[in-house]
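Q:
Got a chain?
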Amino acid sequence: MAQGASPQKLVILLYEQLIQDLHRAVAAIERSDVEQRTQELSHALLILGELQGRLDMERGGEVSSNLDRFYSVLRACLLDAQFSGSKHVLRDQIERLIEVREAWVEVERSSPRTAPLGGPTGITGANENDSSHTPADWKA
């Protein structure tokens, strides 16, 4: 499904995976399943790292800066939830992720199909010659 997708669609898919991971972490907290909570939050942190690592701070301007701050706060909240076992913290972050995901959906709707990675959204993508970061590595 991700193959041939626009850069914006790939970001949307990563957000959806993050949201699913956090929902599963909330369910694990409700079951007192620390191991599952840890797995889900670890996976969410990997995705978050990939999203944050792909920000193009030079070309992305204020958008990239805002996303970088958002991702840093999100990371801190996920770590807090991991240690405290707080499903409330996770639910708050799910709401925020859904809001930002919806903004990405709007960007995708309004973008031409051939929009380059790293354009106005401030996200860089994997270059075809860059084998160091493939979607398979993201485990999403």
Summary: The first helix runs from residue 7 to 30. The two ends are 12 Å apart (CA to CA). Residues 114-121, 124-140 have pLDDT under 50 and may be disordered. The chain has one domain: 7-110.
